[in-house]
Amino acid sequence: MSEQITLAANERLDDLMTESGLKIIQSREVFSFSLDAVLLSRFASVPKHGRIVDLCTGNGVIPMLLTTRTNAKIDAVEIQPRLADMARRSIMLNQLTEQITVIEQDLRLYPKLAGNGVYDAVTVNPPYMPVTAGDQNENEHYAIARHEIHCTLDDVAEACSRLVRPGGKVSMVHRPSRLLDIVETMRKWRLEPKRIQFVHPHANAEANMVLIEAMRDGKPDIKLLPPIIVYENGVQIV
Fold first, then answer.
1. Per residue in 65-79, pLDDT tens?
2. Which long-range contacts (C-beta less than 8 Å, at least 24 apart) are formed by 18-22?
3. Domain locations in the chain?
4. How far apart are the C-alpha atoms of 174 and 211, rounded to whole Å?
C-alpha cells in the first residue's frame, strides 16, 4: 500500500505504467521526464544486487523504473532542490525508501563525498545542449535540465568515471549529434564504449536519441545494437 503524500500546487500524479503500479509526481512548472529516461532505464546494464547511482535524476523516474529490474541500492543525485523534493515524495509514495536514496548535490562535487569506485553501475540523462547552443528557456528548471549550466559533458564523464568501480558500467542517453564528443570524452576518463543503440521516431527518420554504455577500464570492443523505432503507422510501439 502506498504512503499518503501531499501534492503541492500545480503538481499531478502520473502513472509509470509498470506492473507494480508505480506513480510519479510531476509538474508543468519543472522539466518532466520523457521517453529518453524510460529507454535508458531499459537499456542500462544493472546488477541484481550491489550499488547504483543515477546522476541528473530529476524527479527520480530512472531509479524508480530500475527497481522493477534490480534489488540493488540506488542513490539518486539531483542539484535542483524542488526536483529532489518531488523525487523524495514519489519514492515515499511508492514505498521505495529502503531501496532509493535521494541526494541533493552537485554531481561535480559528489565523488568527493561518496568516494571513488563505490558503485557497480551509473546511469545518467544529462543536459544535452551546451550553453552557447540554441535559446535557453526562460524557466530556470527547464534551462538547467536542457543546457549544460551546472555540468558539461566532461564534468559528467569525470563524475561517472570516479564513481564507478573498474569493470563497472556507465549508461547514458544523449543526442546523436554529440556522439563523437561523447565517445571522445568517455575515453578521456577511462570509460570504454561497449554498446550503442540509436533511437528513431519513425523507420525512415533520422535518429533523435542515442543510448551508449561504457565500461570503466574496458578493452576496445563496441557493439552497435539494432535501432529502436518509436512509432509505426502512427502508433507508439515502445
1. 999 999 999 999 999
2. 18/65, 18/68, 19/68, 20/67, 20/68, 22/64, 22/65, 22/67, 22/68, 22/94
3. 11-236
4. 7
How much is the pTM? 0.91
Tell me if 89 sits within 8 A of 25, measured CB to CB: yes
pLDDT tens-place string over residues 169-200: 999 999 999 999 999 999 999 999 999 999 99
Rounded to whole angstroms, the Cα distance separating 129 from 23 reads: 29
Q: Yes or no: say if 73 and 101 are a contact pair by the CB < 8 Å rule.
A: yes
Distance in angstroms (rounded) separating the CA atoms of residues 181 and 167? 22
Residue 23, SS3?
strand
What digits encode the pLDDT tens for the residues 17-71? 999 999 999 998 887 888 999 999 999 999 999 999 999 999 999 999 999 999 9
Q: Which three cell numbers stand for residue 165?
A: 568501480
CATH class of the domain comprising 11-236: alpha beta
Question: The C-alpha cell of 89 is what?
Answer: 515524495
Does position 150 have pLDDT exceeding 70, yes or no? no
Q: Which of 52, 68, 109, 60 is nearest to 85 (CA)?
A: 60
Is residue 18 within 8 Å of 38, Cβ to Cβ?
Answer: no
d(CA 45, CA 113): 25
DSSP code of 186? Answer: H
Beta bridge partners, 223, equal: 195
Strand partners, 171: 123, 213
d(C-alpha 61, C-alpha 38), whole Å? 8
